[in-house]
Amino acid sequence: MNDSKKKTLTFAIMDAPFESARSTTAFRLMDAALRRGHDVRVFAYEGAVALTFDKQAAHPNAVHGRDAAEEDHPLPKDQVRALQALAKDKGCTMEWINCGLCVDERGVGEAIEGTKRGTPGDLWKWAESSDNTLIIPTRG
Description:
By secondary structure, this protein is an alpha/beta fold. The chain has a single domain (8-136), classed as DsrEFH-like (Hypothetical Protein Ychn, Chain: A, 3-Layer(aba) Sandwich). The protein has helices spanning 22-35, 68-71, 76-90, 100-106, 120-129, and strands at 8-13, 39-44, 94-99, 116-118, 132-136. Strands 4-3-2-1-5 form a five-stranded parallel beta sheet, with helices on both faces.
């Protein structure tokens, strides 16, 4: 991609893993942006800080008689890793910051490599310096 057309896009997401399709939709939008050669920044707030929790584990589905391997349940931490790998492959950047206060409240301090801890001030700085910012809120 011509660098003059390269954009920096910031996403703020708030939904915890497995709770709604909003996180999956955000991942799809990030994937599309990276495939088009754009840089992506993600600020995870509230329950979304658990998306990168390193201790997520696949599980069996006894109702359907499948073990963990057969169930092949997608884990958000692996989806984030895939996005990080795509960014590297495309020559883009993908930065991920988890809100530190939210991390502490939820006890999910063990995040995957390539993510950082920050504050809402980081989102503010990113929004000011990005070409566009998309906030994907929770629904109450």
